[in-house]
C-alpha cells in the first residue's frame, strides 16, 4: 500500500518499487510506473496500485478418485502481474486518494480465478486415477496437469497474469482410509520386526548352546586332567612310599649293623672286663691267701665298718672290752690258751 500524506489541501503519494501506480487526472493518464512519488489533488485524481511482485497462493480443496475415495489436495501457485495496465483495466485496483487503500478486493478475485482453474484440472486428473495410484504418482501428475492447464487458460494472459510455478504439496486421503492403507505396511514392518526378533533369539539360543558346549567341553577336559592328576598323585605316592621303604630298609640295616657292632664291642669289652676282673680277683685272692689272718680280720673289720650304717655311740661291757684289749695286745702268731 502506498504512503499518502496531506499538505495544505494537496496529497503526496510515495509507492514501493514492487507496486505499479497509474494516476489519471481528468480522464488522462498523468503518472504511470513503479516506485513513483508525486503530488496530486484528491478531488481530481483517480489512482490505481497494481502489485508486480511474485505472490504465493496456497490452496486446499477436496477431490474424488476413480474408486470414489475422497482426498485432500494441498498446492501452492506462484504468480505475478506482468501487465499492470491490462490488469488495472480488467480488475478494480483503484485506491482511495485520501487513505491509499484498495476500494475493492482484486487479489481475492485473482486467487479465486487461480484456485478454481487449478481445482478443475485436479478434479479432472484424480477422477480417472485410483486412490493407490494417486497417492503414489498423483503429486507429479496433478502438478503437471495444473501447470499445463493454467498456462493454457486464456483469461490469465488477458488479465495480465503470468503463472510462475505450481507446487503440489500433498494428496491425503481421509483419516480412516489412511489408517487402513497404513495397516498392511505396518503389518509387514511388524512381521519384519518379529522375524528379526526370532532370528535374534535363534542366534542367542545358538550362542547359548555354543557356550554350554564349551562349558561342558571345559568340564570334561578338567575332569580328564583331574583324573590324570589323581593318577600322577597315586604314582608319586607309590614312588614316595617305595623310596621311603627303601630308605627305611637301608636305615634299618644300618641300625642293625650298628647294633651288631655295638654288641660285639660290648661283648669284647665285657670279656675284657671279666678277664680283668678275674685276674684282679685272682690276684686279690692270691694276696689275701698270702696275708696273715689278723690282717685279713682287720681288713674285714675295716670293710665292714665302711658298709655299716652310721653309729653315734658304742657301749661295751667290761668283759668284752677286756677280752678285746687282751687280743689286741697279744703278740702276732700266739694263740689263746
UniProtKB/TrEMBL annotation:
<feature type="compositionally biased region" description="Basic and acidic residues">
    <location>
        <begin position="237"/>
        <end position="252"/>
    </location>
</feature>
<feature type="domain" description="Band 7">
    <location>
        <begin position="34"/>
        <end position="197"/>
    </location>
</feature>
<protein>
    <submittedName>
        <fullName>SPFH domain-containing protein</fullName>
    </submittedName>
</protein>
<dbReference type="Pfam" id="PF01145">
    <property type="entry name" value="Band_7"/>
</dbReference>
<dbReference type="InterPro" id="IPR036013">
    <property type="entry name" value="Band_7/SPFH_dom_sf"/>
</dbReference>
<dbReference type="InterPro" id="IPR001107">
    <property type="entry name" value="Band_7"/>
</dbReference>
<feature type="region of interest" description="Disordered">
    <location>
        <begin position="231"/>
        <end position="252"/>
    </location>
</feature>
Amino acid at each position: 500500500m502506498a504512503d499518502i500524506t496531506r499538505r495544505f489541501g494537496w496529497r503526496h503519494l510515495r509507492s514501493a518499487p514492487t507496486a505499479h501506480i497509474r494516476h489519471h487526472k481528468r480522464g488522462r493518464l498523468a503518472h504511470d510506473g513503479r516506485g513513483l512519488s508525486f503530488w496530486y489533488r484528491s478531488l481530481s485524481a483517480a489512482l490505481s496500485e497494481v502489485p508486480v511482485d511474485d505472490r504465493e497462493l496456497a490452496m486446499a480443496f477436496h477431490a474424488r478418485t476413480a474408486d470414489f475415495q475422497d482426498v485432500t489436495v494441498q498446492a501452492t501457485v506462484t504468480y505475478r502481474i506482468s501487465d499492470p495496465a491490462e490488469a488495472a483495466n480488467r480488475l478494480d485496483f483503484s485506491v482511495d486518494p485520501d487513505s491509499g487503500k484498495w476500494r475493492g478486493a482484486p487479489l481475492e478475485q485473482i486467487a479465486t480465478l487461480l484456485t478454481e482453474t487449478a481445482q478443475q484440472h485436479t478434479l479432472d486428473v484424480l477422477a480417472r486415477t485410483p486412490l493407490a495410484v494417486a497417492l503414489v504418482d498423483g503429486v507429479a501428475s496433478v502438478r503437471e496437469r495444473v501447470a499445463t492447464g493454467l498456462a493454457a487458460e486464456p483469461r490469465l494472459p488477458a488479465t495480465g497474469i503470468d503463472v510462475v510455478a505450481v507446487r503440489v504439496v500433498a494428496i491425503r486421503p481421509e483419516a480412516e482410509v489412511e489408517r487402513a492403507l497404513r495397516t498392511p505396511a505396518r503389518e509387514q514392518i511388524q512381521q519384519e520386526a518379529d522375524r528379526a526378533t526370532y532370528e535374534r533369539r535363534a542366534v542367542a539360543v545358538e550362542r547359548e548352546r555354543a557356550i554350554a558346549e564349551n562349558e561342558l567341553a571345559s568340564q570334561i577336559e578338567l575332569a580328564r586332567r583331574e583324573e590324570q592328576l589323581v593318577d600322577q598323585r597315586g604314582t608319586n605316592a607309590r614312588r614316595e612310599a617305595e623310596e621311603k621303604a627303601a630308605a627305611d630298609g637301608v636305615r634299618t640295616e644300618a641300625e642293625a649293623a650298628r647294633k651288631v657292632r655295638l654288641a660285639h664291642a660290648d661283648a669284647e669289652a665285657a670279656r675284657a672286663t671279666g678277664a680283668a676282673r678275674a685276674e684282679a680277683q685272682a690276684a686279690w685272692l692270691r694276696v689275701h691267701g698270702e696275708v696273715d689272718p689278723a690282717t685279713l680280720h682287720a681288713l674285714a673289720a675295716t670293710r665292714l665298718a665302711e658298709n655299716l650304717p652310721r653309729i653315734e655311740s658304742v657301749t661295751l661291757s667290761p668283759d668284752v672290752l677286756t677280752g678285746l684289749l687282751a687280743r689286741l695286745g697279744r703278740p702276732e702268731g700266739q694263740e689263746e690258751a
